[in-house]
Amino acid sequence: MELHGLLSYTFFLFLIAGNFTPEFTISKSIHRHINRPTKLFVFGDSYVDTGNNPKSFASSWKPPYGLTFPGKPAGRYSDGRVFTDYLARFMGIRSPLPYKFRKYAPNKLRGGLNFAFGGTGVFDTGNLQPNLTTQIGFLQGLIKDGVYTKRDLKSSLALVAVSGNDYGTYTSTGGSEQGLPSFISKVVNQMAIDLKLIHDTGVRRVLVTTLQPIGCLPTVTVTSSYQQCNESQNSAASFHNQLLQRAVMTLNNNTKDSSFLILDIFSAFNTALKSKRDFTGNSKLKPCCIATSSDANCGSLDENGKALYTVCKKPASTFFWDTVHPTQAGWRAVYLTLRSSLNRIFL
Ligand SMILES: *[C@@H]1O[C@H](CO)[C@@H](O)[C@H](O)[C@H]1NC(C)=O
Ligand SMILES: *[C@@H]1O[C@H](CO)[C@@H](O)[C@H](O)[C@H]1NC(C)=O
Ligand SMILES: *[C@@H]1O[C@H](CO)[C@@H](O)[C@H](O)[C@H]1NC(C)=O
């Protein structure tokens, strides 16, 4: 499973897009508890990246990505907002600026930063983007430079999403089925090390997502014409999540105020996909943006610039956007399912 799509390394010319931080009207009724964190630091992959990957190769910077929000490609792997944006909205802050834009908008660092890069894992996944430990190093560097103080970190929340790129790389580099359980435990052990590194910087609370039911991703379900999830892959995800649960308990045993919290994306995806059909009768496992040939992806063009993909009429009524990523509507559904646990976390 490849969360980063087709990679091609061309010369990286970077233009500053005008509108890369989403604006939300923040409801006045948001209950601001005294302990409510005011900064969000984000680590991980395309499920939470809001624009760090280079424009030269990332599909997130090509049409039709960004179609719904902000109306043009803006570095998110979706037609619009991703989970990060909804969590920031919940916190009553702006969605944190992608790390790579920090120099262009030094006045926008107060709400935190997003260090996530699409396609990455806890280990290197071959896309030459910073792995989780390196992303944490970026925050450590900013702390060393005095950009964030101990006090800032005390009022901070970290969001960590590891959504399966390590497993995609494991499979595509010939990893065996029998070796998978021990590789899963290697991944989770490295996650635990990284979660502790984040907490050691002084960040007060660290939220980590469970692995989504990877057997339900369109890249897998395409073999059944989007009719059936692959249960053996979902079991592997459950195993990852059990180990993660245990690792988080151990981490909390060693800190005084339950600083580590699990956000159960796995269950939220399952809830959203429970009824297998949307109201138009289409399978919910079928994505909105579909490549028209097997070697193309959503966003690919042929040599004449003609799209090698089709886009559904109503992204707002599909859960999946492309072969592995939810639509904005999908993320919103996931967020709404998780909101009650977020409320408990923020009490
Ligand atoms: C993360 O990347 C760095 C720099 O490439 C590398 O030295 C390190 O070994 C990687 N960490 C893991 C856990 O693979
Ligand atoms: C589910 O995925 C596994 C591992 O990728 C594969 O070996 C198996 O054939 C798949 N099962 C079905 C029913 O497609
Ligand atoms: C956490 O600590 C409790 C009480 O000391 C102990 O019973 C439990 O086994 C520990 N759990 C883990 C996962 O370390």
TrEMBL record:
Signal peptide segment: 1-27
GO biological process, one term: lipid catabolic process
Enzymatic class: hydrolase
Matching Pfam families: Lipase_GDSL
EC number: 3.1.1.1
Keyword Cytoplasm among UniProt keywords: no
Highest taxon listed in the record's lineage: Eukaryota
GO terms, molecular function: carboxylesterase activity
Gene3D superfamilies, A to Z: SGNH hydrolase
Record's keyword terms, sorted: Hydrolase, Lipid degradation, Lipid metabolism, Signal
Listed InterPro entries: GDSL (IPR001087), SGNH_hydro_sf (IPR036514)
Family affiliation: Belongs to the 'GDSL' lipolytic enzyme family.
Protein name as annotated: Carboxylesterase
Species whose genome carries this gene: Helianthus annuus
Source taxonomy: Eukaryota, Viridiplantae, Streptophyta, Embryophyta, Tracheophyta
